[in-house]
Amino acid sequence: MTVAGLARGGEPSMGRVAEFYWNLAGKKTVLAVTGLVLYGWIVAHMAGNLLIFLGPTTYNGYAAFLKGAVELLWAERAVGAVAFLLHILAAAQVTVANWRARPVGYVVRRDVATGYAARTMIWSGTLIVVYLVYHLMMFTFLSTGPGYSETDVYRNVILAFRVPAIAAVYILAMVVLGFHLYHGVWSMLQTLGFEWSGHRRIVPVLTALTVAGGFILIPVAVMTRVIR
Ligand code: HEM
How far apart are CA 155 and CA 147, in angstroms? Predict the structure, then answer.
């Protein structure tokens, strides 16, 4: 019997309810662990991209190093892609489970809070996927955007962010990413059972601000001609 069935007043079975929570907990653990891997990936990507402040030689040298280190590149891509796909699958399943658990029976009441967070996360997550397609078309497949150089990645980024509309899309996407990370890190810490005595919001807030802020520095620096 589903939880919706229980909520409608069917005969409760503790085994089934326990199984439901066990499965949901399993999916949330997959979400948390893959989220952590993706978070590590994104911090590394941000750190690499901040090398742009050291000039074209360093930034293009870093891009050339990554392209040359074929095993490392494909290992990083494989880990990122598997984590990304598992994250999306688990997110979709947790969201559907939360939607199904919406009826007002007392058994499901305590899931309402996570249901709200999950609904926010699924939309910010979807926007990030849309952004990612646009981003890969621009800088990896070089099929859109004002810069098309295979080797001068620095110039591709500068030319792109000199277009105010492109810079605005990126800044907006980073704000959405910041919100996603804020909720994501919060849930991940809960799921993985981290406990700390300080302010409970401090880690999620700092995570979101560092990643979103670090990326946003780049289009802002290009628009203000700090880097050119
Ligand atoms: C200001 C922000 C960003 C800049 C300037 C930037 C820059 C770049 C550049 C230049 C590349 C192509 C590298 C190359 O082929 O040599 C790239 C690839 C990529 N970026 Fe970004 N990026 C930014 C933000 C993001 C964000 C927020 C994400 C994820 C949500 C992301 C995910 C990726 C992925 C998945 C690739 C493909 C990596 C690969 O082919 O191995 N980027 N980025």
Answer: 7
